[in-house]
Description:
Shape: globular
Distance between the termini: 29 Å
CATH class: Alpha Beta
Radius of gyration: 17 Å
CATH architecture: 3-Layer(aba) Sandwich
Order of helices and strands: HHEHEHEEHEEHEH
Low-confidence stretches: none
Strand order of the largest sheet: 3-2-1-4-5-7-6
Number of helices: 7
CATH superfamily: NAD(P)-binding Rossmann-like Domain
Largest sheet: 7 strands, mixed
Number of strands: 7
Mean pLDDT: 95
Number of domains: 1
CATH topology: Rossmann fold
Amino acid sequence: MENQFERTELLLGKDAVNKLKNSRVAIFGIGGVGGFTAEALVRSGIGALDIIDNDTVALSNLNRQIIAVHSTVGELKVDAAEKRFLDINPDLKLKKHAVFFTPETSNKFDFGEYDYVVDAIDTVTGKIELILKAEEAGVPIISSMGAGNKLDPTRFEVDDIYNTSVCPLARVMRTELRKRGVKKLKVVYSKEMPVKPENNNLPHSKIVPGSTAFVPSVAGLIIAGEIIKDLTVND
Length: 235
């Protein structure tokens, strides 16, 4: 009988595919980076997925977010993702949380239930809390650094946070995590210098980072690859 994961099995082997089927991953933030991570995991046969995001699909998301199409504009991202991911794999155990993750909402999640955690959120306070909660539970986590204002998808690297350079967000995270005694953190980051967006005449509060279809997507796919490797090859 035809199996939708048979091409993956040819590369990873049956045991690895079974491990993915029996794994549960939580993805915090399913925008430009996290959405591509989530879809790649679903297409790879991950058995259970938690998606956490309280945002709705906006017209400005169409340039880079895989769940964003005109028919989903205005929907909660977790609802749009649910329909798409269950259409890819109806057997997926999907749990959606329309929650903005902060230190105040972190108690809504039992990190001990997860086999892997993805940090694809934007706020520094949220990222720090997420990393601390995963570390406390002994769950592996991978964190996305800045993908905005970048144009070269070939500049992404996977490394420990304390080996990073150039990325402004990684610099802030290094400082804050060192203060909290975090010894290591796997991250995906870019060594490309950020491009200055052409909105400098706007008030500072209204300036948003520029983005493309081909940079955050690559970061998200790299993260998915690292998770699959860690859950199977390095298990």
